[in-house]
Amino acid sequence: MKKCLLLSCLLITLLGTLIPGQINASAPAKADPRKPEPVIIYKVALDGKTTKTVTNMPLMHRASMSPSSRFVYGERIGYGKADRTIPYLYDMQTKKLTQLSGDGKWSPKQDALYVLENGSIVKLSLPDGKKTVLVPTAAQYPVVDFSVSPDEQYMAFTRIDMLSSNTKVSGHLYLQHLPTLKMKKNDQYEWRSGTDEEMYYWVPNSKKLFYRTQTAYKELDLPTGLKYDHNMTTFPSYSNDMKYRYIRTMTEEYMLDLQTGEKVNLKDPVFTERHLDKIVWSPSGHQMAVEQHSRTSNSQDSYMYIQSCKQVTKCGYPFGSPDKGMPGYYNLSDNHRIIGWAKDGKSYYVADLASIHYSDFSPEKLGPSNNVVEIR
Q: Cα(331)–Cα(3) distance, rounded to whole angstroms?
C-alpha cells in the first residue's frame, strides 16, 4: 500500500521472530492507549450489495484475505518506539486468532501463508498448520522480502549480504523454482530499505518480474533471463486476463487496451487531483475493486472512495459517491482497505481497520517530519 508510513525496515527482519516480553530490554514498551476495536469486514458484490462481519481481530492496521476467504492475515503496528509490528492469523470459521512467527503473504491460489521467519522463508499450510522450510536461514545473509508468482511456480526473494562493504551490490535477487526448491541468483543491487512500499510486481502470466532498487525499477524477463531498467514512478498494473494495463503519469491517466492499443481515458477534467490510488483486479477477467484518491484534507490526510468496476469505465460506489456529495473516508484515519477477492470473482472484501494516522501513535515513534511513523 502506498502510505506515508515507513514501517518495513531491515532491522525487524534481522531481529527475526517477535517474542512478547523480549522487545527491548533497555526501553520498556509504552502503555498502549488505543481502543482494541474489532476489525469489520464487508463483502461487496459487484452489483453493490454488501454484507457485514464483525471479527474477533482487535486493533489491526493491515489485513489480507486468503484465496478461499476463510482466513485473514493481519498486522498490528506497535504504539511506541520500542513496540514492533505483530503479525496474526484469523480463522473466519472458528473465530480463532493466532500470533505468527513472522510477516506473511498469501499463496495466490491456495490457503497457504508464506512467512518470513528469522531471515528464512517457510510455508504455512492451512488449516493443519504444517510448516515447510523453503529458504533456510543463512548467517549474515538474511532474506528481507519475497514475492510468489501468480502461477506459484516461482518465488522471488532478496537476501542482504551483511558482510559486504559495498551497499550498492549487497542486495541479491534470487528466483526459486517452487516445485523443486532449486534457486538461482539473478541480480545484485542496492536494497531500498526504510519503506513499506511493495518491492516486487509479477505480471499476471508470471513471465516477467518487476522489482525496485534504491534508484530504479527493474524488469527480469524469465524466459530469456534478460534484465531491463525502467524510468517509472510506480509498478505497472495489468488485469489478470492481460487485456488492460493501467498507466498514470503527471499529465495522463488511462487504461491501455493491450489488444487494440486504444487508450481509455480515466482522468477527471474537473477534479484533477482525483485518481485511482490502488487497483485490486478480479481473479479472472478485468473487473476491478479500486481505492480512489479524491483530494487531500487539511488534517495531513486525504479523502478516499471505494469503487466497484464491472468494466474499466463502468464503476459504482458501494459506500457513497463523490458525485452525490458524499465526503468519502479518510485514507489514514479511517483506514478502509480492499483486502482481496472471492475466488469466483463476483465479490470482494473491504476491511475497516484501525487508524494509521501519525496522531494515533506515540510522539517518539515519529520521524523528523513529525508526521511519519518511522519504525516497524
A: 9
Measure the CA–CA gap between 71 and 91, rounded to whole angstroms: 5
How do strand 263-265 and strand 200-202 relate by DSSP bridges? unpaired
pLDDT digits (tens, 9 = 90+) for 163-183: 999 999 999 999 999 999 999
Q: Are 339 and 353 in contact (CB under 8 A)?
A: no
| Residue pair 12/311 in contact by the 8 Å Cβ criterion | no
Taking alpha carbons only, the member of 191, 153, 194, 190 closest to residue 175 is 153
46: left (phi over 0), alpha (psi -120 to 50) or beta: alpha
- Cell 472471492 locates to 342
Contact 120, 136 (CB under 8 A): yes
Residue whose entry in the numeric block shows the C-alpha cell 484534507: 297
Given phi > 0 = left and psi -120 to 50 = alpha, else beta, which region is 69? left
C-alpha cell at 225: 533471463
| Nearest CA among 159, 241, 160, 194 for reference residue 8 | 194
Instruction: Please give the model's pTM, rounded to 2 decimal places.
Output: 0.87
**Strands 244-248 and 347-352, how do they pair?**
unpaired
DSSP labels for 123-180? EEETTT--EEEEE---TT--EEEEEE-TTSSEEEEEEE-TT-S-GGG-EEEEEEETTT
Tens digit of pLDDT for each residue in 272-326?
A: 899 999 999 999 999 999 999 999 998 899 999 999 999 998 999 999 888 888 8
The cell for 357 is 494516522
DSSP reduced 3-state for 181: coil
What burial letters (b/e) apply to 219-245, b meaning 16+ CB within 10 Å?
bbebeeeeeeeeeeeebbbbbbbebbe
